[in-house]
Specification:
Layout lengths: L6 E3 L5 E2 L11 E2 L3 H6 L13 E5 L5 H4 L5 E6 L2 E8 L3 H20 L6 H5 L10 H20 L7 E4 L6 H7 L6 E4 L7 H4 L6 H13 L4 E4 L2 H13 L4 E3 L2 E4 L2 E7 L6 H10 L4 H7 L5 E7 L6 H13 L5 E7 L6 H24 L3 E4 L5 H10 L2 E3 L10 H8 L10 E5 L3 H5 L8 E4 L4 H12 L8 H9 L2 H15 L1
Length: 490
Amino acid sequence: MPPRIQLLLANRAYSDHTTPRSVPAAPAVGAGGLVAAVHSLIEPWDGAAGTTWVAAGRGAFDREWTDADGFEILDTARGPLHQQRLYFGDDAWDGHYTRVSNAFLWPLLHLVRERLPEVTGYFPPPECPDGTAWQHYVDVNATFAQAALRASPSDQTCWVHDYQLALVPQMLRERGYNGRIGYFLHTPFPDIDIAAPYLTGEGRDRFAAFVGGILGADLAGFQTEADAERFRRAATALDVAVMRDGALWQDVRRIETGAFPVSIDTAEIEELAGRARLSERFEAMCGVDLPVVVGLERADYTKGIPERLRTIASAYRAGLHFTYIGAAAPTRAGVRAYEKLNAFIATAAVEAEEAAAALGVPFLQLHESIPWDEVVALQREADVVFTSSLADGMNLVPLQAAVAQAARAQDKRGVIVTGRDAGVAQVYDGYAGDGLAIVNPLDSVAMGETLQAALAGRPGRISDRLIETVRRRDAHAWATGFLTRLEAAC
């Protein structure tokens, strides 16, 4: 029997309630890759057993839909899901989520090769949280751990997700949790030497606690083997574990680590690509007899959006004719680092728009979220899907684009450009001739040359080989592989 998810802990809920109970409506299914990646292994809840998903209750009307302990039963495509929402006050959430998870850990975890705050002008340096903020992070993690301990039966497998809950595995271990404990980090893991300037004093102590928390797991999973190796080096450098016989140890306990590249629900993408249609504004732009370059993602400072837009502007100035459609979906409103990023994006977009106007070609850079079906339709129609992450856990856009273009004849398919420090570049290394071009987003000359080659279909268009590999390594395979390894580790 394939493994199933018994207990899943994540900062994000499977879905949020955005309407009051007096106005019945389906809850909004959580955005991002986690839901898509794990939903196929959800075990329908029968009233006593099945999957329990524990998450923060952040939907505007969540409290109206749950009982006094935060529980409810959600209808999903897999059947009933037993979900528990944990509620936190504004101060606790600000300390846990804004000041520790987003201002300290998120930028820190992406320092895999470069000290990005020093080379971009907009990437924020990790801010060491003060004692109050750190205590909120500890308390939120402890609340999640207590929820897992209250789950019945107590020997079930617990799968903890991502950097917001890194302390939970060790907390469970210390509190005598009887089941298997798995942990998966969806972001990259930093190089301890690159991150060193931001890890002095309390910053180093906080990061050592972060790493030590993960080490409470029986199996700690990462996107790539490079991430896993950087984690192992950090654990020994921070004196929270030792390496022995090729593995990490804490006293007599061995901690398994490994690479489990996350993926997508390929069936969903293929089904949507078969029926999705472009809106009038995009259809008109794609109807011009020019190659179409598409760049779509969240407006995050890890995505290299200013660098990409500068490359677009330079290509126009060099006389290359193509249509560009870009969108950066707003995220984390009110956070200073994102306001600074948005200003950089706006400046670069104006320069690219002016260069496009001088050449007389269509250009559009949006600061808004595009409906999911249109995202897939644009990925399907693009001649170049241009991603440029400075660092990324995986970056699912290249995988989505490969599958979205599967219905097109191979000689009509496009090329996908990806940053060298996105997980996808390492996991699919060796597919350069299959429509995946890997580039350093901080090298403007290389970016320009890569775009010019991609517009010409070089070094090759998206191949059946790449598509089939993505299909084989889908979200179901990722989740199954992790849980199977976790069972073996215990």
